Amino acid sequence: MDPATGKVAGVIGEYAVDAAVLDALKKNPDQYRAGILGPDAYPDVLTGQQVIHPPTNPDGTNRWLEYLWSNSDSSPAIKAFVTGYLTHAAGDMYGHTFINNFTGGAFTFKPADNAKKHILLESYIGKRVPDPTFAASIAGVEDFIYQKMVDARPGTYLDKELLVKDGEGTDGSIPRVYSTLRAELEADVVKLTADAKKCKPWNPKCSAVLLKAEAKYKKAWIADIDAGLKEWVKTSDSVAKALFFNSEKKTDVDKAQAILDDYVNKHLISMSGPPDAVGSLAVLSGKVQDIILKAIPDALVEPIKQFKRNLYDVLIKRATGMSSDELKRYSSDPETYFDTEMTKGPGQLINRGKFDTDMLFIKPADKTIEYKNVGAAYDTVVMSKLLLLSKDSVNKLMADLGSTNRLEKPDIMLGFIKTLDGDNQQAGMILGRDCRSYRQVFMRFAGERICPQTP
Ligand SMILES: [Zn+2]
Questions:
Q1: By three-state DSSP, how is residue 293 classified?
Q2: What residues contact 208, with CB distance under 8 A and at least 6 apart?
């Protein structure tokens, strides 16, 4: 970029893509695209919106990104997926800096105007970007997503540092809730088995048969939770594609609802206390209700009840703050509501005509934006390329730009981003910490509060 004019001036140089990343992208482009759905999809939309996007640990989103990256070397499919996940973060970083300027701040449903403006404006812009390639697949990555993002067994990093029990935003997280329940059941099984061994035959208050039967019943329940949590990965993938990423370019809330209803029937009910596993254990029949009730920790009783009643409502309403009708309306027809919603409330007020000409640089007849004209889009593309580079390549770029800053982390997207919902997170990035370099690479746009002056 020419910092004086703010226009693209030419090429700085050519920089080698990291060898492992290049190999992964060549072999697994579909897994890369799935990764780009990022925490909107994996481990699921609500966990993504309530735990991964906002800063729910001292290190924020970065802790998730570093964790995924440090576990990404086991296969090219996984490397491609995680590279995609980082690309989602790059897009949010610039996209939300731009969007938050017009919504009055990071996504929140308090006030509800903010959430409405976010959905409306993001849908409006989404409809004006060139069609992507919609092939996105988690084939070969399902197990990685399950192990690293869903299976929060006691003692794992996921359990201790990321998807923390009783942590912020985790009360609606299926992976967290059922990992907690499973851990309780596993502890019960250990205790029941030990108690059964201690039973003396002459003690009528201690029945080894009953204790063993209860242990068997709880083992079956645990198996149902395992199976359901594994299936959750595919379910989340399908829900996200129905809502955000399909060739019909539709927010298909009905399809998402159907997918989630099916999951409730096939898995969630039995994960929540499996009546069908009881059949052979008639000896327990009178005690089953008691056992189920006692086994579910108090804090989980209400969330589980709500999941069973209407999983769609819990997930989508909580993630978006909207009913499905509202979500349909603002996401499929943002043009109609633009002028009424975007000219009131918090943030920079702007009408549709002015937004088209001054922000997207399009005429009413234009179907798509040219990304090179729209700063937030251009910068997203640049950042998406930079995060493919090896550390050495980034440092070569830094030297070519005349900067003495050097990247310490293995990837340029790591080490700084606190929240994906926030704006101006790029201030913490290696280039953002050196304005002279930053302005040679990134375009200025509305909402940016970093490096404001021409160096
Ligand atoms: Zn996001």
A1: helix
A2: 196, 197, 199
Give, in degrees to the nearest 5, the angle at Cα 239 between 157 and 101: 80
| Block residue for tokens 């482009």 | 29
Contact indicator for 421, 107 with CB cutoff of 8 Å? yes
92 CA from centroid of ligand 1 (Å): 5
Task: Write the burial class of residue 429 (CB in 10 Å: 0-12 exposed, 13-18 middle, 19+ buried).
Answer: buried
Tens digit of each residue's pLDDT (9 = 90 or more) over 440-454: 999 999 999 998 765
CA separation for the pair 259, 272 (Å, rounded): 18
Determine if residue 104 is left, alpha or beta; phi over 0 gives left, psi from -120 to 50 gives alpha, anything else beta. Answer: left
Neighbour count for residue 360 (Cβ, 10 Å):
20
Identify whether the C-beta of residue 452 lies closer than 8 Å to the C-beta of residue 432.
no
Q: Which of 89, 72, 84 is nearest to 35 (CA)?
A: 84
Q: Where are the domains of the chain?
A: 165-321
What sign results for the dihedral spanned by CA atoms 61, 63, 65, 67? negative
DSSP-derived secondary structure for 10-51: ------PBPHHHHHHHHH-HHHHHHHHHGGGTSS-HHHIIII
* Distance from residue 45's CA to the centre of ligand 1 (Å): 10
What's the CA-to-centroid distance between 201 and ligand 1, angstroms?
A: 60
Tokens 């020419």 found at:
2
**Structural tokens at position 257:** 């609802």
Residues within 5 Å of ion ligand 1, judged at the Cβ atom: 92, 420
> Which among 225, 206, 218, 89 has a CA at the least distance from the CA of 152?
225
Alpha helices in 56-150 (DSSP H): 61-70, 76-103, 112-126, 142-145
List C-alpha distances in Å: 219 to 153, 226, 423.
16, 10, 47
Find out whether 330 and 337 touch, Cβ atoms under 8 Å.
yes
Q: Exposure pattern of 132-147 as b/e (b: 16+ CB <10 Å)?
A: eeeebbbebbbebbbe
Query: What is the C-alpha R_g of the chain?
Result: 25
Cα of 406 vs centre of ligand 1, distance in Å, is 27
Cα(276) to ligand 1 centroid in Å equals 39
**pLDDT (tens digit per residue) in 184-233:** 999 999 999 999 999 888 877 788 888 898 899 899 999 999 999 999 99
The answer to whether the CB of 404 falls within 8 A of the CB of 339 is no
- Decide if 444 contacts 376 (C-beta within 8 A): no
**pTM greater than 0.90:** yes
